[in-house]
Amino acid sequence: MLLRRTVTLLAGLFVLFVLIAPSDLDKFTPEAFLRVPLEGLVGVLVLVLLPPRFRKPAAVVAGVALGLFTVVKIMDIGFDMVLYRPFDLVLDWPLLAPAVDFVDVTFGRFASMLAVVAAVALVGVIVLLASVSVLRLSSVAASRRPVAIRAVALVAVACVSLAVPGIPVYSDAAATSLVDHARRVQAGLHDQEVFAAEASVDAYRGHPGLLSSLQGKDVVISFVESYGKSALDLPEVSAKLADGNSRLKAAGYTARSAFLTSPTAGGGSWMAQATLLSGLWIDNQQRYRNLVASDRLTLPRAFREASWRSVGVVPGITQAWPEVDFFHYDKVYSAQDLGYTGPRFGYATTPDQFTLESFQRNERSKAAGPLMAAIPMVSSHAPWSPTPDSVSWDKLGDGSIYRTMPASDDPPESIFGRDPAAVRADYGHSISYSLESVVSYLERYGDENLVFVFLGDHQPAQMVTGEGASRDVPITIVAKDPAVLSKIEAWKWDDGIRPGGTAPVSKMSDFRDQFLSTFSPPKV
């Protein structure tokens, strides 16, 4: 008897927890669980009123549905922690493949296979547990049908009579979540048509004289991993920007800065980079796949068609990268092509300073004509610890010097097991290192023919930004030739390498056309 009552109690607690638990881990407070789930009351009433021959099948179906709902809620919590949004049942499944690839590259094939098996097993256990729980509760309620009906009625009346404005006593979180997911499913199913319509407009394809105002200039577009607007509030980053601004001015540079709204947050760097380079809003993997299968004019391709040598320096690429054909680079340098023999610092395959030195050594010092490069830098990728030290450019060599520094290959998710204050400090230090790499590169290798654009790809995880942060990232253009900066006066960007609180904000997808229209002849 005691065992049966214990099983019934545990089943009830499991169902109660699933129905009222928030989809945002930050909202897991005691108050959030002191509510009555209306969906539970309705479910009990339906099951006890069903004829006996339909009750068990209905309970199984309800249990399986509750189990799947639990899995989706877990995905919602995970996506909210990292990407600031719930899981999309239509568009987010392809994102699981890069996660498996990451485990494969970092820990090996066996670990990735084990992770997949464990995930599938966990889903099965959750669905089984939910089904057994609902079956047990329906059986107990049906055996005491009059009592169950009176209890549901009593609790419903109490919810209404005890309701106080601002202090909810009941919860419809599960129903609200289902409605929200249904709306996202509907939007996701139509997103391919919407994207096709957006992609059909390619205003600068075949435009004569593209980028003629930049003839003779080397143009670098560098993405600083996780460099979001929130970084500007960190003392170490703020000090580094002030110091870098003074040093660049002393070296004869002028800079302008603003903000771009990224299509993603917390991760998905490839989507942000594709958004800026293509001029299309890429906020899910379906759009990304459709983009790279298209003939869209990207900035690297526009430069290449205008007689620049176009290269991609992508230290984050450690496997085959079919997208190279879409971006139309003349040459791509992946991690293994950079000549780095040092250790990994967290996720980063190559320290940012070494990445820039490798680009200078392999391309810019040898270029016979104008050069365009897209360079995603990865030292500021989570877990943000440890960060390499800046060293003398003359001593970089093959990267052996980094073997004297503390290193690790901790995965990005390791930040969730550490003190948030320490994580934020490590994040600020890594961003400062990346900014120092850019500033010191410009001091050492910059000249009148260099135009350097650096920007963040997305904000870091909410552990750093806090809840409710925007998706804005800083962007800066640096050049010595005053003619270059005079071209963008109409943009009204702020002076210096740090955008102020009132600096212009535009969508990241608008940058391609803004850049092409500014440095190309007017359209006729």
Global Rg: 27 Å
The residue-averaged pLDDT reads 89
Please summarize the sheet with the most strands. Answer: 9 strands, mixed
Helix content: 40-55%
Q: What is the CATH C-level name of the largest domain? A: Alpha Beta
Task: Give structural notes.
By secondary structure, the chain is α/β, with parallel strands linked by helices. The protein has two domains: 2-192, no CATH class; 209-518, Alkaline Phosphatase, subunit A (3-Layer(aba) Sandwich), CATH 3.40.720. The protein has helices at 2-20, 38-49, 52-83, 96-107, 109-143, 145-161, 173-199, 235-250, 269-278, 285-292, 299-305, 324-327, 352-364, 420-445, 462-465, 482-487, 511-518, and strands spanning 36-37, 170-171, 218-224, 254-261, 309-314, 331-334, 371-377, 450-456, 472-479, 494-495, 505-507. Strands 3, 4, 5, 6, 7, 8, 9, 10 and 11 form a nine-stranded mixed sheet that branches. A two-stranded parallel sheet has the order 1-2. The protein is elongated and about 85 Å long. The termini are far apart. It comes from Lentzea aerocolonigenes (Lechevalieria aerocolonigenes).
Which helices and strands, and how do they pair?
Layout (H helix, E strand, L loop, with lengths): L1 H19 L15 E2 H12 L2 H32 L12 H12 L1 H35 L1 H17 L8 E2 L1 H27 L18 E7 L10 H16 L3 E8 L7 H10 L6 H8 L6 H7 L3 E6 L9 H4 L3 E4 L17 H13 L6 E7 L42 H26 L4 E7 L5 H4 L6 E8 L2 H6 L6 E2 L9 E3 L3 H8 L6
Helix pairs in contact: 1-5, 2-5, 2-6, 3-5, 4-5, 7-10, 8-14, 13-14
Key traits:
single chain; 524 residues; alpha/beta; Alkaline Phosphatase, subunit A; 2 domains; two-stranded parallel ribbon; 11 strands; elongated; transmembrane; Alkaline_phosphatase_core_sf; Sulfatase; transmembrane helix
